[in-house]
């Protein structure tokens, strides 16, 4: 859902409809209004597909609304609400297919914010509330009995966030902030024959965090960033999370950056206590990331390129064990390092080309992470026509990281998209994915579709 605010006065409406392979339908409607100090965004969408395997249907519909008001040239207030519902069926793996593994899930969020924007300081105070309702049939394997009860759960998250950023002198920026979140949820199984509820879990958690971030331009060619965040979670305790970086602004539009940061994430209440593959023994994810990057723009910005080197050392990434029934687990220690490169060239008003490559070494495999990934693409525009195409080569992608039975896959994907502007307010589009009809998997036992196509129309008025 696109939520950007309209900047110019007036009303803009967009409608998009696309239809393609496997009876796939994608629709979206949006309306944006800007009148004086008032602004609004309203969107709605409906998407569905039969899926490329039996018993793999998916249906989703939702809506979003945002209202804003500029109190003055320095202060504004806004609020929004978003509700999405989807029905999904999981066919299981090719080796162990499932029957009636169906989910009906509704999730919503709402928030309210007050923001200030002055010449030397800006900030905001926001309140938010998220909630979810889940009804899940775990399904059954061929030759076995259907489930006699269905899993149900509901969860919520509410909190407040505040930050203020200020410039005290030239080249300086100091930001301080505070976050509070309350998590809660309960689950139960509903017996189909009697309607009886069998209690599961009922948990509540709280998380407090404060942070300070400092940026200073030491000179025209050197900048310093530093920050620290302290996080206290009622389940796992307190954690200090520092970060820092240096940036060297070199001649000829070149830049060299060095950064070290700590990553940290507490397990969510759904990952620990709600529907499978929940695991109450999960530990928080932690990692330290070191990165060195160089980038440059040449030929008046027409040519750009960059390269990044990184090293990651971490513990306890949360992942699925890849078995049936599935279970969330901590990965244990991870140690990765690699390189990423990119290049782009704006040839003329019609042509753009770009390419990127990444290499990743993993001491301990990470699910769905490839060792090599290479992409090359081109964009062409002329008059009413625009065409984009790209080829991606992936090698050494881990589809399973189960100890002793790790699996990898490699494949080449070719995608193509074309647009034709019929008139001022209408565009036709067509796109094809995996045009080489490659057989590949991201997760072991779940083959991806071969060549797929979609066409549609985009209206703006």
Automatic annotation (TrEMBL):
TonB-dependent receptor-like beta-barrel domain boundaries: 51-435
Localization terms from the record: Cell outer membrane
Principal localisation: membrane
Source superkingdom: Bacteria
Pfam families: TonB_dep_Rec_b-barrel (PF00593)
GO biological process, one term: siderophore transmembrane transport
GO MF term set: siderophore uptake transmembrane transporter activity
Keyword Acyltransferase on entry: no
CC per GO annotation: cell outer membrane
Membrane topology: Multi-pass membrane protein
Keyword set, alphabetical order: Cell outer membrane, Membrane, Receptor, Signal, TonB box, Transmembrane, Transmembrane beta strand, Transport
Matching InterPro entries: Beta-barrel_TonB (IPR000531), Beta-barrel_TonB_sf (IPR036942), TonB-dep_rcpt-like (IPR039426)
Keyword rRNA-binding: no
Family of this protein: Belongs to the TonB-dependent receptor family.
Protein name per its UniProtKB record: TonB-dependent receptor
Organism ancestry: Bacteria, Pseudomonadati, Bacteroidota, Bacteroidia, Bacteroidales
């Amino acid at each position: 859902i696109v939520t950007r605010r309209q900047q110019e006065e007036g009303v803009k409406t967009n409608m998009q409809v696309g239809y393609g392979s496997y009876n796939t339908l994608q629709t979206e409607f949006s309306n944006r209004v800007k009148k004086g100090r008032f602004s609004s965004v309203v969107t709605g969408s409906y998407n569905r597909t039969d899926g490329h395997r039996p018993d793999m249907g998916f249906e989703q519909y939702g809506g979003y609304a945002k209202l804003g008001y500029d109190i003055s040239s320095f202060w504004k207030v806004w609020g929004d609400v978003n509700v999405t519902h989807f029905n999904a069926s999981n066919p299981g793996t090719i080796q162990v297919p499932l029957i009636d593994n169906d989910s009906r899930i509704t999730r919503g969020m709402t928030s309210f914010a007050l923001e200030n924007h002055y010449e030397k300081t800006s900030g905001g105070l926001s309140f938010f509330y998220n909630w979810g309702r889940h009804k899940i049939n775990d399904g059954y394997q061929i030759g076995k009995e259907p489930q006699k009860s269905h899993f149900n759960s509901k969860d919520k998250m509410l909190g407040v966030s505040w930050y203020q950023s200020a410039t005290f002198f030239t080249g300086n920026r100091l930001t301080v902030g505070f976050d509070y979140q309350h998590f809660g949820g309960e689950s139960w199984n509903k017996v189909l024959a009697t309607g009886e509820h069998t209690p599961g879990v009922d948990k509540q958690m709280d998380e407090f965090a404060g942070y300070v971030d400092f940026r200073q331009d030491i000179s025209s060619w050197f900048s310093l960033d530093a920050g620290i965040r302290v996080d206290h979670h009622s389940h796992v305790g307190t954690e200090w999370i520092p970060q820092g970086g240096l940036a060297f602004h070199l001649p000829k539009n070149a830049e060299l950056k060095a950064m070290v940061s700590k990553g940290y994430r507490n397990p969510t209440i759904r990952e620990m206590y709600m529907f499978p593959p929940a695991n109450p023994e999960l530990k928080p994810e932690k990692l330290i990331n070191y990165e060195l990057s160089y980038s440059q723009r040449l030929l008046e910005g027409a040519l750009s390129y960059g390269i990044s080197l990184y090293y990651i050392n971490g513990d306890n990434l949360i992942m699925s064990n890849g078995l049936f029934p599935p279970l969330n687990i901590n990965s244990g220690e991870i140690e990765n390092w690699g390189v990423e490169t990119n290049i782009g060239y704006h040839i003329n008003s019609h042509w753009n080309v770009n390419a990127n490559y990444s290499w990743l070494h993993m001491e301990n495999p990470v699910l769905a992470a490839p060792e090599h990934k290479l992409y090359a693409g081109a964009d062409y525009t002329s008059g009413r026509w625009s065409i984009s195409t790209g080829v991606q080569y992936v090698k050494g992608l881990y589809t399973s990281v189960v100890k002793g039975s790790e699996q990898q896959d490699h494949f080449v994907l070719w995608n193509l998209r074309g647009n034709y502007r019929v008139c001022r307010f209408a565009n036709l589009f067509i796109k094809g994915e995996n045009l080489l009809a490659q057989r590949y998997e991201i997760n072991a036992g779940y083959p991806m579709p071969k060549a797929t196509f979609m066409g549609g129309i985009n209206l703006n008025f």
